[in-house]
Each structure stands twice: as structure tokens, then as C-alpha cells.
Prior knowledge:
Blueprint: H1 13-25, E1 30-33, E2 48-52, E3 57-61, H2 84-93
Parallel strand pairs: 1-2
Antiparallel strand pairs: 2-3
Amino acid sequence: MARSLKKGPFVDGHLKDKVEALNARNEKKVxxxxxxxxxxxxxxxxxxxxxxxxxKFIPVYVTEQMIGHKLGEFAPTRSFKGHAVKAALERAAGxxxxxxxxxxxxxxxxxxxxxxxxKA
Length: 120
């Protein structure tokens, strides 16, 4: 459920204080934070915030288009390494990853379409 408009966007207090301090001093330093739940507000534009993804800090440069989004949206927590089934099929077929031939064009041409089985 969305947050009430009368409450305003949620930003952790410690992060808000750090951003306001940088704005007051007119500094551009990288801020480290674990607060993935904080909403990006206009005060953060132009700052680089290093957001923790569970393993390391991902630097996020805040632009105007990011306002209203959460910091955690820009620091993915999972890394996709591909489908295991597809890799196993390629190894079984003898295809070398990165070869010039596409996986569908291994026979030198387009594969013939399978004819539908006759009804008996």
C-alpha cells in the first residue's frame, strides 16, 4: 500500500541530515548508506549515494528522473548468471560460447518445420 500523501516521502533521518549538511557546505562527497528503503527527494539531486546491496556498496548518482523512487531500486541484490538448462544444452550440442554461428543455425541453414502428425 502506498504511503499517505500528507505524511510525505520517507527518508531515514540520518541520511536526510547527511544530505542537508552536504548541501549547506556545498560539497559533493559519496555518502555510504544501508537505507535502501529511503525515497529519493529533490535535495539529493547531484549527489552520489553508495547504496549497500548486501555484499558491497553500489554508487548511485541521483538525477532528476529518480525523484520518488527508492534507493534500493538502483542497487540490485541479485546477479543473474544465465539459465543453467540453456548452458547445459549448448555444452551437449558442442557449441562453443561466443562462436560466430548462432545456436539455431548450427546445421548451416534453417531447420525444416515439423509437419503436424496425421489424425488417426
